[in-house]
Amino acid sequence: MRRVLVGLAVLIATAACQQPTETQPDVTGSDTYVAIGDSYTSGPGIAPAVADSGPCQRSKRNYPSLVAERIGLKLVDVSCGSATTANVLDTPQAGAPAVQIDALTESTVLVTVGIGANDGYSTRLFSQCVFAKNPGRTCGPFVNEDLEPLLDRIEVSVGAILDAVQQRAPQATVLLVGYLSFASGAPCDVLDVPADTLKLVHEAEQRLADVMSGVAQAHDVRLVPMTQLSIGHDPCSDEPWTNGTTETRDDGAWLHPRRAGMEATADAVIDALDAETSAAK
Asked: What residue ranges define each of the domains in the chain, with the CATH number in brackets?
């Protein structure tokens, strides 16, 4: 692990002296970075799209692509829209050749994991809070009563993924990447949700973030705390990192990261790698 971290430190230091280019450069050597995740990793709607990514809707400007470009690793991006924790470990998505964990090899030196929200959390949050006809009746019961057992299951599943990653790629640096917040501010035209409901949605975001933090700590993995880092960059802010309830042409799907959010996440991943290398010295 120390050798890998030191190697990454050299790559990060070199990248800091270079301007990122629009296309991923040729990468020599066999060291790979594997990106595991769902649509908050793959980046649907952010142009340009990866031509052969199909329903996974990977963007060439998602944060894994930006990180790999900046530190000079070969990227193996298996993130996919709608992916659940089961799709990482044991149940391939429709049309996918394998589960995401199978992308790990002995040459994997970096793994980012951004998964968990599709295990019932996002579907119910959207249907009972964001797009509900009467969110005053449905959002509170979900957040106050039903959310806790759902988060308990997500905690177990994400922990199992981190264990599997560490077993399959024991020399790799592993980072758990949290979800960008879209509900940290006040309502507006692009996020037409009642203010009291939006506060409940943000509470749900924070509780998921707390689960991710606890899982990372329990499995000795560094968290990239994007929920906290993105506060103040909601869809109604002057510098939005996510879209509201409508998509922005070529700049992300609804309630998903925009290009600016992916760039901020890439910055935070690089910062986390720098912290990892400093801690290993």
From this structure: 2-280 (3.40.50.1110)
